[in-house]
Design goal:
8-stranded mixed β-sheet; G6PDH_assembly_OpcA; Glucose-6-phosphate dehydrogenase assembly protein OpcA; OpcA_G6PD_C; OpcA_G6PD_N; alpha/beta
Length: about 375
């Protein structure tokens, strides 16, 4: 059921909520918290409400949506109440604020908060630089943002790192739960060796890739290389280097990952990109400060930025066979000049590159023989060719 209340007040909205409960026969409510969604009024507002409705089936709550409208319009509050099938396991109150009221969201929210229930604030799209200092953020025990949904995700993540306060969290961090679980489980299997190096490959504008690299740097206490992928979505691969070999987890299609470990068969792992509703439901399970997220933000300073990669965990390794030295520029030039040249030129090239000489030419060079070949060899060998 949806009830529209145009040009109303918060007092009228509260009275209407009480009336709906009495008419519906609900004498007790099992609401565990109040979720405040802060966004600009637009088409994307409904997407955020749908995600909150789905999350409310696990966490029954009152959802208050602060949808800020045109600031040049006359000051007005249009409210909408949704209950029953249109509100999941919650009751949704949509407040559309216009004019001067657009900047007074906290004032309109306070009369509608559930008594003695924790408050969680969620900015599904653009978030303030300091959520803890925002008027609505000061009302909340937890503040949820999503740097991946902002215009410049990496820049937004840097702002989160700079202005972090206890109670802040980011859905870009929540999306890493499955990756963190698989990587942690892979290190619980023998051989129990120290990780000496790590690299994380993902899209250039993927904040989750940066956060995963920061988490590894914080937990393993080693510098982690962050590589930009040329294909794939989000996080593409992770490689953990150990003495016995590397642990590699790759997800090129954004759905199924492949875990490769030394001495074990490759295993396929479900790594489907998580929906907003799943991430939101996970974040509503805890109301205390997210200490691992705080440590991860500090670990971002240990990330080493690398060059673009094709996306495979082992990409970028040397192509020369192990133990075979790479020829120097002078040697390559000498070999190229020697092909097809006359005997004297080939002898000069061979001497310059340090190539092996025949016994007769070696003896001539040592005895100072007056042959043309001997002169060339003796003069070059004096500059240390071999």
């Amino acid at each position: 059921m949806i009830i529209d209340l145009p040009s109303t007040t918060t007092s009228h909205v509260n009275s209407k909520l009480v009336q709906i409960r009495e008419q519906g026969g609900a004498t007790a409510l099992g609401r565990v918290l109040t979720l405040v969604i802060v966004t600009d009024d637009g088409a994307r507002t409904e997407d955020a409400i749908d995600a909150a409705n789905d999350a409310s089936r696990e966490h029954p709550c009152r959802v208050i949506v602060v949808a800020r409208g045109a600031r040049k319009a006359a000051a007005r509050l249009d409210a909408q109440i949704r209950v029953g099938g249109d509100a999941g396991a919650s009751e949704v109150v949509v407040l559309r604020l216009y004019g001067a009221l657009a900047d007074e969201g906290a004032t309109c929210v306070i009369p509608l908060l559930l008594p003695d229930a924790p408050v969680v604030a969620w900015w599904p799209f653009e978030a303030p630089p300091r959520p803890a200092d925002d008027p609505i953020g000061r009302l909340a025990q937890r503040r949820i943002t999503d740097s991946a949904a902002e215009r410049n995700p990496i820049r937004a993540l840097e702002v989160r790192q700079k202005h972090y306060a206890a109670g802040d969290t980011d859905l870009a961090w929540t999306r890493l739960t499955l990756w963190r679980a698989v990587l942690a489980a892979s290190l619980d299997l023998p051989p129990y060796e120290k990780v000496t190096g790590a690299s994380v490959t993902g899209e250039a504008d993927s904040p989750s890739t940066d956060l995963l690299a920061g988490w590894l740097a914080a937990r393993l206490r080693i510098p982690v290389k962050r590589v930009k992928a040329t294909n794939g979505e989000g996080i593409v691969s992770v490689a953990l280097e150990r003495r016995s070999g590397s642990i590699e987890l790759e997800r090129p299609d954004g759905k199924v990952g492949t875990l490769t470990q030394p001495g074990q068969p490759a295993r396929r792992v479900a790594l489907q990109r998580r929906e907003i509703r799943d991430c939101l439901a996970e974040e509503l399970r805890r109301l205390d400060p997210d200490e691992p997220y705080e440590a991860t933000l500090k670990g971002l300073s240990k990330i080493v930025r690398g060059r673009a990669s094709s996306g495979r965990a082992g990409a970028g390794k040397a192509a020369l066979p192990t133990g075979e030295p790479k020829p120097s520029a002078a040697q390559a030039k000498a070999v190229a000049a020697g092909n097809g040249a006359d005997p004297a030129t080939r002898a000069k090239s061979a001497a310059k590159s340090g190539a092996a000489k025949s016994p007769a030419k070696t003896v001539a060079a040592r005895t100072g023989a007056k042959t043309a070949t001997g002169k060339a060899t003796a003069s070059k060998s004096g500059k240390g060719g071999s």
